[in-house]
User: Fold this.
Amino acid sequence: RQQCRAVYIHFLTAYPMATRKLEDELDFLLVNVRYEFPTGRQSCIEAMACLLPKLPLEVIDGIAEAWFLALAAQIAKETEAEVLQAILTTSHVLFNRLPPGKRKDNLELLLIRWITASPKLSVQRAAWKLFTPLLSSVSNPCLNELLIKSVDLISDESIDSEFLEMLLQILTESVKLSSNNDIDRLIKEASASRFF
Assistant:
C-alpha cells in the first residue's frame, strides 16, 4: 500500500496533466475517505496527507473546504483508531498548509460553530477531535472562545468519560497557548463543580 501511494502521489505531482484531470484525481481521493473497508480509508487519507505538502497553494486553496468537511464528516463516524489518527494528521497538515487569510479563518469559524452552536453532541465531539491537533495553529481569539466552551462542557454531567478526558487534554494543551488569564480560573471552577 505504501509503495502504491508513493507511485500515485508521484504521478499526481510529476506527470503533466490538465487542471480538470488533477481535479478528478483529487475528487477520487475525497470520495474514498468513505471507502467501505478501513484499510482503504486509511490508505486514501494517508495519501492525502502525503500529497498536501507537494501541491501548489492555489490547488490547496481550491480543495481545502471540501477536504476538511469530508474529513470532519468521517471523523464523526469512524470506529478504527488508525483511520481516526490518519484523519487527524491529514486535517492538521491541511490546516497548516493554508496561508493565513480568509480560507483559514473560515475553517476556524466553522469549527467554532460546530463546537459552540451544534445541539448534537456527536458533531461537537467530532469538532473537538479535529480541533485538538490544530491547537498551535488556531488564532488566539478563537482559542479563547473554544476554551470557554470546553470549560462549560466539563461542568455538564451528561458527557461521557472519553469525551471528558479529551476535553481535559485540550484544556491542558491550550492553556499554554492562550493569553487569557481568566481561562485558568474558569477551569478551576468547572473542575471543582464536576469533580467535588
Observations:
- Residues 13 and 54 are 7 Å apart (CA to CA).
- Residues 57-77 form the longest helix (21 residues).
- The chain has ten helices and no strands.
- The chain has a mean pLDDT of 79.
